[in-house]
Amino acid sequence: MKHFIIIGLSLLALTGCSESAVRYAAPPIESGTKVKISVARLEVSEVSLPAYAKSEEIWRETETGGLVSDASILWADDPSRSITLELSKHLSAITGARVAAEPWPFEEPAQSRLTVRVEELLASQAGVFKMSGTYYVSKNEDGRERSGSFQIDTPIAADGGASEIAAARAIAVRDLAQLIAKRGI
């Protein structure tokens, strides 16, 4: 009986800890400009993030250039997964192509594959959400492979809190989708 009480108290303590955390989702935003691309079916690999950005915590840059987070302020979903899904959604809306995150869910195979490797993903001390890295597009219908680097800086609204950071991230991912559609596919 003692063991059940201890287990129950432990579970209650764990539940209490998780209730103190607040989660923030990147809000849905319009995809914007339409762009014609050379493929009708595009698979998006899971977006690769730096070690710190893989965690659920929302990271900020300090005045000294260090990175800090607060364990009680979290992303609503796994960052790699949510950014991959956001990027896929925007690319589909922008291009009109059938776009899906890996694994490819359709019978007819994808004609090309997009890989994105993010090197920096954080709220800077200067009030800007920074996202930089490289994208790679496998051979498409014309047989060419493409790649390019990106640096997207999105202003964070005045307050600079977690919801403003999430909104800036949503814009940055949308801007990345537009850039890749225009230059890479």
From TrEMBL:
Pfam families: ABC_trans_aux (PF03886). It comes from the Bacteria. SUPFAM superfamilies: XCC0632-like (SSF159594). Residues 33-181 form the ABC-type transport auxiliary lipoprotein component domain. PROSITE patterns: PROKAR_LIPOPROTEIN. InterPro entries: ABC_trans_aux. This is ABC-type transport auxiliary lipoprotein component domain-containing protein. It comes from Pelagimonas varians.
